Amino acid sequence: HINPAITICLAFWAGFDRKRVAPYIAAQLLGAIAAAAVLFVFFGPKLTIYEAEKGIVRGQPGSEITASCYGEFFPNPGGLTSGDTIYDPVAHAELRKTVPHYVAFVAEVIGTGILAFVVLAFTDARNRGAPAANQAAVFIGLTVALLISVIAPLTQACFNPARDFGPRLFTFFAGWGQIALPLGTDWGWLTVYIIAPTLGAVL
What we know:
It is a single chain. With 203 residues, the protein is an all-alpha fold. The chain is built from 8 helices and no strands. The model has no long low-confidence stretch (mean pLDDT 92).
């Protein structure tokens, strides 16, 4: 498993050894942090140039745009600097109103719930209509692609606490600071990207 929400779901419903949950989640987080570090090496210089072009100061409001290359944010900040647009804090403040916290939370619960449902259905030996064992991953991947196409404009479609928190922790120390992990000011990183996917998978 590469997803703590799915690991917890399998421990809850499918007999996965609960003693292995914590080591799996630790490995998933370490893998996500390592992946973020590799991407930082690959794309860090390009992001630095992009920030200069768009008037973004890393670690300041607006740098969610480049931090979102690693972790997720709601609403998806991707369109704030499309084309030749310079970052506009007023536009960003208006964008925040379009996806309230509860909408982001529910979107991640439902999206991860659908993903977990498909994983459980397609890997259950009792399901005679499931694809062959070596094809289940293809259908799970297609499910993720469909869910992303619907939910990514809202929350960047996380569905995986490790995929968000690992890179978010890396970017906190890589210069984005409180923008990546706004401790005490905005708990969306915890509620929307850790609690909601885990709840959705178990439900």
